[in-house]
Amino acid sequence: MPRKPRKPSSLCIHHVILRGVNQQIIFEDQSDYLQFISILKHYKERCDFKIYAYCLMSNHIHLLLEHTTTDLEIIMKKIEVKFVRWYNRKYQRTGYLFQDRFKSEPVNDMRYFQTVFRYIHQNPLHAGLESVPGTYPWTSYHDYVTSDFSFIDIDKILTLFPSHSDCIQYLHTISDQNCMEYYSSFRLPDSEALKIIQEKTSCNSPSDFQCLDLSTRNQYLHSLLLSGISIRQLSRLTGISRTAISNALKTTHT
Questions:
Q1: pTM for the full predicted model
Q2: For the chain, which residues make up each domain, given as ranges?
Q3: What pLDDT tens digit does each residue of the chain (254 aa) get?
Q4: Which CATH architecture has domain 13-172?
Q5: What is the H or E stretch that residue 66 is in?
């Protein structure tokens, strides 16, 4: 079956998501995040596109882009290919890193532009990786706070607010509105999640998790997250707080 054409944007602005194949971890350490950002900068100059927001999560990426002279498909292909080649050399692996082709949704008005802008920056918050917007390091939030020597095109966003501080306040106003929700098509029913937990761990109940030593518990949690169980669902089924699960994910990557 042929692929459906992407929906065009009257503003040439798209919200883009790249996912790791089989929800694989994309970023193993700090240098991986920095390399992807470097590639974004590299092709931004060469492909004449604007970037208004980004968020690099462990196994997926959000971008808010405006393309002009270069087609979005070409831009993303160049970014993906360059990063995958670098990643495969570094980790001595072969094959795909990203799942299928990237997902995208058109942004056709400035109101939704604002909504996507906030949604991308609050992605770590809703994933349980931060308790306050802006504390997670791998987003463009920090470019809007400092606004010095940034490769992010912050001016277009800032014109939508009375002041710079109003823009930052908007990012701190918690919203549950989803934009092309990443997890929706992958959410597991609790029965299947419980089966995975029992297969991958020695635990059959939340109380079993409470008796584990910290190292074993963190290794189990990391494995379960890679199996497709969300942080929220894992917290609910194991009785472990989302903050503790997020910390476990960080610990296993250091």
A1: 0.72
A2: 13-172, 187-251
A3: 456 677 889 999 999 999 988 778 899 899 999 999 999 999 999 999 999 999 999 889 999 999 989 999 999 999 999 999 999 999 998 888 998 789 999 999 999 999 999 999 999 888 878 888 999 999 999 999 987 778 999 999 999 999 999 999 999 998 878 887 544 444 567 778 888 888 888 888 877 887 888 989 888 888 887 777 878 788 888 888 878 887 776 665 54
A4: 2-Layer Sandwich (3.30)
A5: strand 60-67
Closest C-alpha among 118, 149, 145 to residue 55: 118
Percentages helix, strand, coil for the chain (3-state, rounded to 5) are 50, 10, 40
User: How far does Cα 184 stand from its chain's mean position?
Assistant: 14
Residue owning tokens 């092709």: 43
Distance between CA atoms of residues 89 and 80, nearest Å: 14
Contacts of 132 (CB under 8 A, 6+ apart): 125, 172
Nearest to 151 by CA among 79, 83, 58, 54: 54
The position carrying tokens 């001016």 is 155
